[in-house]
Amino acid sequence: MSQWFTDAFRAEYDKQSDEIGRFNLAVFGKTGVGKSTLINAVFGEPVAATGIGEPVTKDSHLYLDRRGRLGIVDTRGLEIGRDDKTLAADLSKFVKEYRRKPINEQVHAAWYCVRPMDRRFEESEAQFIRNLVDHGLGVILVFTQVPSRDGVVHPDVIELARRIEQLRLPIFGERPVFTNAMRDPFTGQPAFGLIDLVQATFRIVPEAAHAALVAEQQVDLASKARESHKTIGAAAAGAAAAAATPIPFSDAAVLVPIQLAMMGRLAIIHKLRFDRAAMLAVASTAAATTGGRAAVTGLLKFIPGAGTIAGGAIGAGVASTFTFAMGQAWLVVCQRAASGNLPMIGGVVDSDAVREVFLGELGKRMPKIRRE
After folding, report:
1. Which of 90, 139, 259, 360 is buried most deeply by CB count within 10 Å?
2. Is the dihedral of CA 6, 10, 11, 16 positive or negative?
3. Helical residues (DSSP H) of the chain, grouped into ranges
4. pTM attached to this predicted model
5. Adjacent-strand bridge partners of 348
6. What is the CA radius of gyration of the chain?
7. How far is CA 359 from the centre of its chain?
8. CA nearest 132: which of 86, 172, 92, 101?
9. DSSP alpha helices (H): ranges in 135-273?
10. Which of 95, 129, 100, 101 lies closest to 21, judged by CA?
């Protein structure tokens, strides 16, 4: 692997990771309502065992478990309805302290989870939600483990939701979001409601946390696609600006930082860790034995008419078109990697096959692509 390429990609990947930041979510609810299962289903992350993580403030019973661009705040050792005064004091101290921190360190949203088939929602829970809102947190009330048949939820769930709506709690949408995090292999009941939950969460978090939420959640693929196309469009515009005054073909490496930043951000959006993303990037661009200029000019040869500009100059149109096509091709590689749909040999991704995928997608966007 080219050390130059790896180092350059690492720098841009880390820079994009810092720009995307972290999404911090507070998850509350009584013991046994399915909080851990819900978090794992939405984010693909196992929740830390009790005692893992760090207190959000000194002597606090609220814990923050940081996992890359995801932070989960929950209670440890206390129970809503039993330790309300202690939790209220911890919450007040926590919010005041974290409000003074950068936006990436603040809590952006709260889920309050209820298992409706317990058929109860206590006043202590309603008051806890009001307390969260009074401290400036947007709250989504989540019904977990909702039973359904043929798309119709259990009538007891509907009844409890109706009773909660009558309380007029300051929750998103004024009603619970129905979810079932896991398919039941015995009854065949499907998972549902997770995309609704993620989309509701987008509505209440600050704009600065949107990109991190897009990257960390694993169920709303449409939002990942939108963020990806936005990233590709911005990179194409940046490439056009860089070549507003035509640049010599031999100096095409000025496009490299723009393209590596785009590739790094797309990898992060699809939750690909650096080592895997770098391997795929090398396989895709065949940069393993080349430096930056050679890597870019090598790929530029695939542009229709590139032979007429070799030794000449690259204008804004070529730079933008090439960067856009490269982004779209890399997006497909990232999507396939995230879904586990890349060719494997002996349990390892087939690098030659990855490059064929990349160049095949590049060719679709440049129909006259010349294979050499």
Report:
1. 259
2. positive
3. 3-20, 35-43, 84-98, 123-134, 155-166, 194-204, 210-216, 221-242, 256-269, 274-285, 292-300, 306-309, 316-338, 351-365
4. 0.85
5. 345
6. 24
7. 26
8. 92
9. 155-166, 194-204, 210-216, 221-242, 256-269
10. 101
Where exactly are the structural domains of the chain? 22-216, 220-365
State the amino acid at position 215 in one-letter form.
Answer: A
Joined tokens for residue 363 = 């060719």
pLDDT at 370: 41
What is the distance, to the nearest Å, from the Cα of residue 253 to the centroid of all Cα atoms in its chain?
30
Query: One-letter amino acid identity for 74?
Result: D
Angle at 191 between CA 185 and CA 193, to 5 degrees: 165
Round to whole Å and give the CA distance between 87 and 93.
10
Tell me if residue 328 falls in helix, strand or coil: helix
Q: Are 243 and 225 in contact (CB under 8 A)?
A: no
Bridging pattern class, strands 177-178 and 139-143: parallel
Contact 38, 47 (CB under 8 A): no
pLDDT digits (tens, 9 = 90+) for 296-316: 555 555 555 444 444 556 778
Query: Which one, of 7, 44, 104, 12, lies nearest residue 224 by Cα?
Result: 44
What CATH number should be reported for the domain whose range is 22-216?
3.40.50.300
- Please check whether residue 265 is in contact with residue 327, taking contact to mean a CB–CB distance below 8 angstroms: no
- CA–CA gap between residue 192 and residue 116 (Å, rounded): 15
pLDDT (tens digit, 9 = 90+) per residue, 318-357? 888 889 999 999 999 999 999 988 888 777 788 888 888 9
Report the distance separating Cα 256 and Cα 245, nearest Å. Answer: 17
Q: Which two tokens stand for residue 295?
A: 């890597």
Per-residue b/e over 3-29, b at no fewer than 16 CB within 10 Å?
eebbebbbebbeebbeebbbbbbbbbb
Gap between the Cα atoms of 274 and 214, Å rounded = 18
Alpha-carbon span 152 to 138, nearest angstrom: 28
Contact call for residues 206 and 216 (beta carbons, < 8 A): no
What residues does 109 pair with on adjacent strands? 25
CA-CA-CA-CA torsion sign (113, 119, 121, 122): negative
| Residue 94 CA: distances (Å) to CA of 25, 39, 99, 130, 215 | 14, 22, 8, 16, 26
197, 42 in Cβ contact below 8 A?
Answer: yes
